From TrEMBL, chain A:
Keywords, alphabetical: DNA-binding
Protein name listed in UniProt: Winged helix DNA-binding domain-containing protein
GO molecular function, one term: DNA binding
Residue ranges of domain Winged helix DNA-binding in the record: 21-99
Species: Blastococcus haudaquaticus
InterPro entries on file: WH-like_DNA-bd_sf, WH_DNA-bd_dom, WH_DNA-bd_sf
Highest taxon of the lineage: Bacteria
One Pfam assignment: HTH_34
Automatic annotation (TrEMBL), chain B:
Keywords from the named record: Membrane, Transmembrane, Transmembrane helix
Protein name: Uncharacterized protein
Membrane-crossing residue ranges in chain numbering: 57-79, 91-112, 124-145
Amino acid sequence: MTATAGRHARHQLDAVIHSPVRFSIVAALAGVDEAEFGHVRDIIEISDSALSKQATQLEAAGYVRMRKGYVGKRPRTWLSLTADGRQAYARHMQALRAIAGDAT
Amino acid sequence: MSTEHPLLTPEQAREQLAAVGGRSLHLARDRRIHATGTAVFGLTAAVHMTTQNVVTGAAQVVLSCVVLAIFVAEAVVVERAARTVPLRARFWSRTGIGASFVLALGVVLPWLNLQAQTSPNTVPMVLGGAVLVAAPSLLAAVVIARRRT
């Protein structure tokens, strides 16, 4: 908890996930165990560099894991949510529902 | 990382919640790929393990090589073809295949070996054993294929 902590639901919003692009990435990854970088890029509709930048920030926060490998000779990167990432996403969604007046 | 709490109106929150369901990475095709992979892995392991007393000598070496090749090919095909690992697919796959191995090593193989001491294993015995060993993997494959999330 920080000095700005309080009881209003907005205090439960995660500042890392709150960015629209990062929110889209986390929300999409929450539905799978792991997804290939290119597939996430296509679904979120952003560029390689933008996804790479946002995924790196999420990885730095401990929310996303990036696994690099090869399929044949082609390099491939896989993205997945960590346990911390799933918890943070669940808390963020709960806060969104509370703010939207739909707390369940 | 910033600890400042973002401001959000109820309308914006509703918009974000509505947007969540719109972009799913989930692919039914990937579910089928992982389910098929799990079923093939379990069936191959079941056939290989239960034929230990039936196939002997050079034929057993050949069979082992074929089984190994199938395992490697299956792993490569799944990694290449699937763009996602569906939610809990890995858990169910590992659980099913693990249960198949436990059943084979703990129940079916000791039973087949015990029977082989008095008379050779018959085809129905081997088939029955193979079905029993493959069952957990096949069940896991069905679970993977049928899950919707």
